[in-house]
Sequence to fold (477 residues):
Amino acid sequence: MPPNSAAKTALTQKGIEVPFLNKTLANGLEIIVLPDTSVPIVTVEMAVRNGSFTEPPELNGLSHLYEHIFFKPNEANLLYRCEIARQYKNTAYFTSENCLEKLKLESKIGNVAYLNDADQLDIYNGRTQEEIVEYFYVTTSPFLSSAMRLINDAVRYPTFDEKELEQEKRVVVGEIDRNESNPFFYLNRALSDKLFYKYPTRKNPLGTRETVLSATTNKMRLIQSRYYVPNNAALIVTGDVKPDEVFRLAEQIYGSWEKRKVDPFTEFPLVEHPPLTKSEGVIVQQPVQNVLIQIGWQGPSTGKDDAATYAADVYSYILTQPNSRFQRNLVDSGLVAAANIGYLTQRNVGPIALTLVTTPDKTKAALKAAYAEIARFDKPDYFTDEELENAKTILESRDLFEREKLSDYAHTLGFWWSSTGIDYFRGYYKNLRATSRENINRYVNAYIQGKPHVGIALISSEAQARVRITEEDLIGK
Fold:
């Protein structure tokens, strides 16, 4: 044993720590900073607790549409263009754009000279998931302040231009078209719609053509007034920065952003997804060669059963390792080409999904074998203590690896902040390290074994006519 290895092992067993710092402004905006001076790159992200989990049917997909119009010209851009027109005495533009009125915006927005740096801030994007919408700029460290101003002005002073909205509606409908051209879309959609049968829109960030095409600027302003407020948002900065400087700039730039008087989740509480009352099997017929099987359960929610969320993550990693009993009995046996199981951490009921890829002639045998494995999940010999500890180490190592690219790691921090709260993530690896066999068995018994579930098969009509998979096959009866 090398010198100091025992001390290093003991330190590892406590769980790694992610060295971010955070501070909450008086208006409720949370500032999260993860510094790393090794490369002069900075990522500035705005995370908002919005997404499909906030969407009733009439608003389904509009969080995603809002993401698409976030980076469109805002009042600060209009002010900047008029200032340029005045500077260069472009009378025609100045008059046609009613610049005398727009220049009055300076008292509200402030000096917009930072937009001279726009060419240094052209790496940007956004994404929408069930429980978060996030926007980010990647730039070099000298342009930190400008990136923070760009996001501030986009979030606080949108114009919701009618023409821009109509154009982005068509773009989003195009995304829906592309998703629906992929047979696997129907597998995932069927599983989610069955697991969350009463409120399926709350798990569908993409939305529908009907809701997207019916979007109006008034609906966009409704979303803004509910969720785009400082006490429902976090500013995340990673990379070559000094935390004190970020906190100072955040106070200076965002401190005047007016707090929403009532927390949006108090005024518009999350729905309570009812538990499944029975198991159900569904055949989805699409032109595919192999057969894809998904078996899904309603898993734990953060804030209600945190211990089970840690156990779910650890156990999923045990089962997905190539030498696990789960993989040996399903993949190495030749019954399936691939087997996976995972849990998605969510505030509002995270799904558990077991996925199998097999051939039509092996489908029934693969399903029977998978349910046999599920029945053994809580048996003492199903995994070893070494596998348990290795899974924890793999999860820690993955985090350390992901931190090598802080521009992406900003999204990780945003995800955890929105779905769990940043304090959950602060103690995440410590709690993973504390996860025991007993915790895993409790998770398995509480959420998987003997619990109502959904079995979905994605299969071609020709293969189904030949092998005749039944609902009973899919639910393990």
